[in-house]
Design brief:
Blueprint (H helix, E strand, L loop, with lengths): L1 E10 L6 E9 L5 H4 L20 H4 L23 E2 L3 E2 L7
Parallel strand pairs: 1-3, 1-4
Antiparallel strand pairs: 1-2
Length: 96
């Protein structure tokens, strides 16, 4: 289910110009046996960052990309539709 939509327009270290993306964040409950069928790494990341499965409550405090940590508690509640999040800008989000 589409839960969150977030626009991004940020500067990235080592790159000229702004990095622009629209993030569509979906949530789904997967039984443990299905976790193995999901990619083990982020395929669009040049460093192939590993995918980690953690409890929703633990994820809320992490520096996530896109910046959805502060609203993850809403993912456990039924929703009428997608939530439009505040945009990610260089003032609100910093690349590590």
């Amino acid at each position: 289910m589409l839960r969150f939509v977030q626009e991004q327009e940020t500067e990235r270290p080592g790159e000229a110009g702004l990095f622009r993306r629209r993030h569509l964040v979906f949530t789904v409950h997967l039984p443990d046996r299905l976790h193995r069928t999901v990619a083990a790494a982020e395929l669009d990341d040049p460093g192939r960052a590993p995918v980690e499965w953690i409890p929703l409550a633990d994820a809320a405090g992490l520096h996530l990309y896109p910046a959805v940590g502060s609203v993850l508690h809403q993912a456990a509640e039924p929703a009428a539709g997608p939530v439009l999040l505040a945009p990610m800008t260089s003032a609100s989000y910093r690349w590590r």
